[in-house]
Design a protein that fits this description.
Number of helices: 24
Strand order of the largest sheet: 5-6-7-4-8-9-3-10
Radius of gyration: 30 Å
Oligomer: single chain
Distance between the termini: 79 Å
Structural class: alpha/beta
Number of strands: 20
Helix content: 40-55%
Strand content: 15-25%
């Protein structure tokens, strides 16, 4: 591989004769001018077609107006369509990967490129494959709308219910959901696969590639935002694209453009001094930044909100910083958590107040946790929470579990933060007895319990007159309570007496977040125990389900 200096010296004359952006690309990819050349005509042709014949369809105020390309789109399309093979004048690039944050105009651009291929190439068989049938329908409707809105397109392209046809060039287009079975037997020449980060397998991509092998001037474009799961094949494809761009892998037919912010502090900047939500980072991930004041305002507001709300950072990194993230992410800032420590004797302060008892029953050889949750000024700006955790472990397993988890559970037993039950399994009768004692001492509104392993305990408590509520452990059920607890912690409205076991478990928590920004504690990804935190979330789940009736019990909020 030639160095940049060696390359520019070798191809000096050829580089001087091409457009600046093509020159930059040639140098970056070390393009061999004996095999490839740059055609300014083809580079310009695709962009002029889009701006002359394609229109805006999704914006109510601007619908029907010409679709104007940003500078980066001119340059991207110029490189994809302008670079040609010397031996047959076909396009150099046959596989394209485009990745960026939301709102960089991929849907409209996809439809415009479909129309370009239908009009300018004979026997085009074009497809947009979307992640869902609903998204596929949107792609088809946008393409149809562009045809209807321009007389030139409407003259040659006939829209049908499920496809578009151009008789003059014998071309057709369909928008389909990403179903590998439905793709078998197709003979595509131009394909756009949308949102490939959600694909569970790469079968569809391979099926479409196989269907294109007889097409001499074929082109496949994968266009996507990053994803929430690095185990998906789309992440491997992203890594492959990075290696091609970095010259670690040679693939002359592969083009990739990736808009992403830095994953870590740039060289020369201390991590503690780095703001990953700064304007320079937003610009890197959002190519339309310079072209949309509305987008700038939205991103700045969203970045500010993400700084204040940790669970929002997860989706913000993906959608607006262009970063792939793991589905499990660390949750709490240790310094923020520690700020919740209080000198107040919580059990004395709330002796006559209402409380919720949260229960998380582990298997009988691990930690079992019960947490008391008290509150002040519910449903007011001064709403504040106070928690008291209790934990148990089998006495005979203290040493074994200490070695396994690389912590000294004996220390926490000595400090009174961890209680033991006799033998080598947790006797849940001890936990039941403690809940009875708590109910005698405090005004227990309800016991909020994880249904897993909790059926017998819940039945016994209920039969003995203690209210019980089973807390479903689905992400939909726990997302809002988890966010409510998180907000209380970061707003410094969450208090507890100093307890190193409770704090250790808080530091072990990782959060799973789905594509809809729902979150929950992910026990499977936690390196160590988190049971007392899970019990606390169960308390918040009860509070959020009964907030108004609980607030009505606080007579203080009615006082003048």
């Amino acid at each position: 591989m030639l160095t940049e200096k060696e390359y520019t010296e070798k191809w000096h004359e050829q580089l001087e004769d091409i457009l600046p952006y093509a020159k930059l690309h040639a140098v970056a990819r070390r393009i061999d001018f004996d095999l490839y050349y740059f055609s300014p005509r083809e580079a310009k042709k695709v962009c002029v077609f889009i701006e002359k014949f394609c229109t805006i369809t999704k914006d109510a105020e601007m619908s029907g107006q010409p679709l104007k390309l940003d500078t980066w789109q001119w340059e991207m399309l110029g490189n994809i369509y302008g670079w040609r093979r010397v031996k047959d004048d076909h396009r150099k690039y046959r596989d394209v990967y485009i990745q960026g944050g939301r709102k960089f105009g991929k849907t409209s651009l996809s439809s415009a490129l479909v129309l370009y291929h239908m009009i300018t190439e004979k026997a085009t068989e074009a497809y947009i494959l979307a992640s869902t049938a609903a998204q596929a329908a949107i792609g088809l409707e946008i393409t149809k709308a562009m045809v209807f809105q321009h007389e030139g397109l409407n003259k040659y392209i006939r829209p049908y219910k499920f496809e578009l046809v151009c008789d003059k060039t014998s071309s057709k287009f369909k928008s389909m959901s990403a179903n590998p079975d439905a793709a078998h037997g197709l003979n595509p020449s131009f394909v756009i696969l949308d949102e490939t980060h959600v694909y569970d397998s790469w079968e569809l991509v391979e099926v479409m590639k196989t269907g294109m092998v007889t097409r001499a001037n074929r082109l496949m474009i994968l266009i996507s935002t990053p994803g929430y799961d690095v185990s998906k094949p789309g992440y491997d494809h992203y890594l492959y694209a990075k290696k091609v761009n970095n010259l670690e892998i040679t693939n002359d037919e592969f083009f990739a453009i990736i808009f992403e912010a830095d994953y870590e502090a740039p060289k020369g900047i201390e991590p503690d001094d780095w703001d990953e939500f700064a304007v320079d980072q937003l610009k890197m991930a959002n190519p339309r930044w310079e072209h949309s004041a509305t987008l700038q305002e939205y991103l700045l507001n969203a970045a500010d909100s993400a700084k204040q709300n940790p669970s929002e950072r997860f989706s913000f990194r993906v959608l607006h910083l262009g970063k792939w993230v793991n589905s499990a992410s660390s949750w709490l800032d240790p310094a923020i958590w520690k700020a919740g420590e209080t000198d107040i004797n919580i059990t004395d302060k709330f002796k006559t107040k209402d409380c919720i008892v949260g229960v998380d029953l582990a298997n009988t050889r691990d930690i079992t946790a019960v947490t008391l949750l008290f509150w002040d000024n519910l449903n007011t700006p001064e709403e504040t929470y106070y928690t008291v955790p209790y934990c148990w472990m089998p006495a005979d397993l203290i040493n074994e579990n200490s070695k396994r988890d690389s912590v000294d559970y004996r220390k926490w037993v000595e400090m009174g933060f961890l209680e033991t039950t006799p033998g080598n399994f947790t006797d849940w009768n001890f936990i039941q007895k403690r809940i009875y004692e708590i109910a005698d001492e405090y005004n227990v509104i309800s016991v909020a319990i994880d249904p897993w392993n909790g059926g017998k305990l819940a039945t016994d408590l209920y039969n003995d007159g203690i209210p019980v509520e089973m807390i479903k452990q689905s992400i939909q059920s726990l997302s809002f309570p988890t966010k409510s607890m998180e907000k209380a912690i970061y707003d410094k409205r969450f208090n507890f007496e100093p307890n190193s076991l409770y704090s250790w478990q808080a530091g072990n928590v990782v959060i799973y977040q789905d594509a809809s920004a729902n979150i929950r504690i992910d026990k499977s990804k936690a390196a160590h125990k988190i049971d007392s935190i899970a019990a606390t979330v169960n308390c918040f789940a009860y509070v959020e389900a009964h907030r108004d009736e609980l607030a009505a019990g606080d007579i203080e909020i009615f006082m003048i």
